[in-house]
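Trying the structure run again after the queue cleared.
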Amino acid sequence: MEPIATRESVYGFIATEPTLKPTQNGGMRFYARFGQVPSIPVEGGGFEEGEAHFHNLAVYDRMAEIAFERFRKGDRFIAQGEIHTYTRPVEGQEVPDEEFRAARISHDSAMTDYTVSRGRSAGRESGRESGRSGPTPDGVEAEPSGPDRARTPQSVGSHATESGRTLADISAGQGAPAARGNDIPF
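Done. Tokens:
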């Protein structure tokens, strides 16, 4: 039996507006800061949300272009890849830094409402014709698919907290008070 192939992964929310820029090698680079909110165990059971911490996220080449089309500030995601450490100049000193380089990235299906558009090859694999709607073998209602139908993710980042703050407000950071407890919109 072959071992299961695994890679490092991260999940979180896109905290800044993503950018797409060319690299020195002629490829493309998607970049955004992302946030993670840790769950902290509390006495008596359960969890409490900790303070958000932020990191760098990069995606390269064709996947960078796809990510730039699909992700916006506030979107929840899961990514597979690796941590890349490097140094960068800050005030004449080389300072260590790191980024998560995603080979694959997708919206977090537990936190995002979306519709999947299945192309012709996916329809053939499941034994159904492309463009057909109706229940799938597992009973899930399939949406019509086709080349003009795109995925339409909708982030939960627009949900407001008890105090009226949104994930986009919280992720804006820079002077904003830390989000805690019932003030976290997820």
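The chain has three helices and ten strands. Worth checking whether this holds up in the mutant runs.
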